[in-house]
Specification:
mainly beta, four-stranded antiparallel sheet, 4 strands, 9% helix, globular
Length: 57
């Protein structure tokens, strides 16, 4: 099975990190282009969020 995240991406080391986004805890599961794939820990809801909205607050 191949890894989902491109290891050459500048933020590939952020995958697996728990971040506080919109007042709730989210897990970064993938990164690509200008977006993180984040999953809300409370209920498992996943969505794509721009990297700058998470890291550059």
């Amino acid at each position: 099975m191949r890894p989902i995240t491109n290891p050459k991406h500048i933020y590939a080391d952020q995958v697996g990190t728990v971040v506080d986004y919109e007042g709730e805890k989210h897990l970064i599961t993938d990164v690509g282009g200008g977006c993180f794939k984040v999953v809300r820990l409370r209920d498992g809801y996943g969505r794509n969020v721009e990297i700058r909205k998470i890291l550059h607050r």
